[in-house]
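Postdoc handover notes: sequence design on the structure in folder B. Input tokens:
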């Protein structure tokens, strides 16, 4: 099965490599002057799309907070009943929306200053859903700097799944076994992703890069303690374990369904393959078409190309930026890939199937 990576890798790898200095998750002025990206940034800035949207985020965070409060209120009100599994599914979706809010806080889309962004990110991430803000920031910053680069992007390093035929050929043990049928196993494996986020967050507390580890650990364990205490106090053990699995499974599948279409099946880079910043971000990303409901469900990350070019742009502005970026890429002859949601999953799964070919031979 042919995916966009098959046809676009050549374009990505033959583009002239240049150096692009990045400053965290924002667009610092250094290195933009005179570049293709500088001219695009000027158009975006002139359109006012980098301005903060305090009213939007006040409404959004309020609604998500009310949904979380309502979900837990229903949990305590219902008590011992199997209807709690419906509450678990609802809270799985709410946790996904909280994760998207933490994502926007981390990118400084909500606040321009670092401190309130970190405070908000830790409250929503560590305390709200049990995911370490510091661990995620370290991982996600490296992903943004080098998306789909096999050695530099932690999101495409081989683990349980493999992301290129080279990784598949070198795989051993469980990844080699799963890699043969990873396209079919992808969504079932996502049911475990919620648990993986919690485990990875706790393990990261021992890593050297972690700042404020005491604070991060205190908030994480406060969440985990309160969460498990609520489940096993209100529900009998069997029902509590069922709630736990349904809640975390829905959370994991929801997050995976949001993030997988963004880059999987798009060109991958390796070694010294480093196109300039504009091409590196556009050629490795995929947009998902849709209306306002799609923006809400995917947290604006359906406009992945624009988000990677302008990480600190408030998510409600990404839709307007899309028109400017798409037209500009057309002027420069840069491939701009956009597809529907179902087609994006099909392309991602097709890529997973293709890269597992050496393992099935």
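Designed sequence:
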């Amino acid at each position: 099965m042919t995916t966009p990576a098959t046809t676009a890798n050549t374009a990505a790898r033959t583009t002239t490599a240049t150096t692009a200095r990045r400053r965290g998750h924002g667009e610092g002025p250094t290195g933009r002057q005179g570049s293709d990206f500088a001219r695009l940034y000027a158009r975006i800035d002139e359109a006012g799309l980098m301005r903060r949207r305090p009213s939007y985020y006040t409404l959004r965070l309020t609604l998500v907070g009310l949904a979380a409060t309502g979900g837990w209120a229903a949990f305590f009100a219902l008590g011992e009943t199997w209807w709690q599994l419906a509450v678990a599914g609802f809270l799985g979706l709410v946790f996904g929306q909280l994760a998207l809010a933490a994502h926007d806080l981390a990118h400084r889309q909500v606040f321009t200053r670092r401190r309130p962004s970190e405070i908000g990110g830790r409250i929503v991430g560590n305390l709200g859903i049990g995911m370490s803000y510091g661990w995620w920031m370290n991982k996600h910053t490296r992903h943004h700097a080098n998306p789909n680069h096999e050695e530099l992007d932690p999101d495409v390093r081989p683990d349980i799944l493999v992301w290129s035929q080279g990784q598949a050929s070198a795989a051993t043990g469980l990844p080699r076994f799963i890699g043969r049928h990873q396209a079919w196993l992808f969504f079932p494996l996502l049911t475990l992703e919620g648990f993986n986020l919690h485990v990875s967050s706790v393990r990261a507390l021992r890593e050297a890069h972690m700042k404020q580890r005491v604070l991060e650990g205190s908030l994480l364990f406060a969440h985990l303690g309160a969460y498990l205490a609520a489940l096993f106090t209100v529900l009998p053990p069997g029902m509590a374990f069922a709630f736990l699995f349904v809640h975390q499974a829905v959370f994991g599948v929801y997050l995976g369904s949001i993030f997988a279409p963004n880059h999987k099946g798009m060109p991958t880079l390796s070694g010294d393959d480093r196109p300039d910043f504009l091409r590196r971000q556009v050629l490795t990303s995929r947009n998902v078409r849709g209306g306002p409901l799609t923006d809400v469900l995917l947290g604006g990350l359906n406009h992945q190309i624009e988000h990677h070019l302008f990480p600190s742009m408030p998510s409600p502005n990404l839709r307007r930026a899309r028109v400017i970026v798409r037209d500009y890429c057309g002027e420069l002859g840069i491939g701009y890939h956009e597809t529907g949601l179902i087609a994006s999953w099909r392309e991602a799964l097709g890529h997973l199937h293709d890269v597992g070919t050496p393992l099935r031979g």
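Context for whoever picks this up: Residues 1-33 have pLDDT under 50 and may be disordered. Don't rerun without checking with the PI first.
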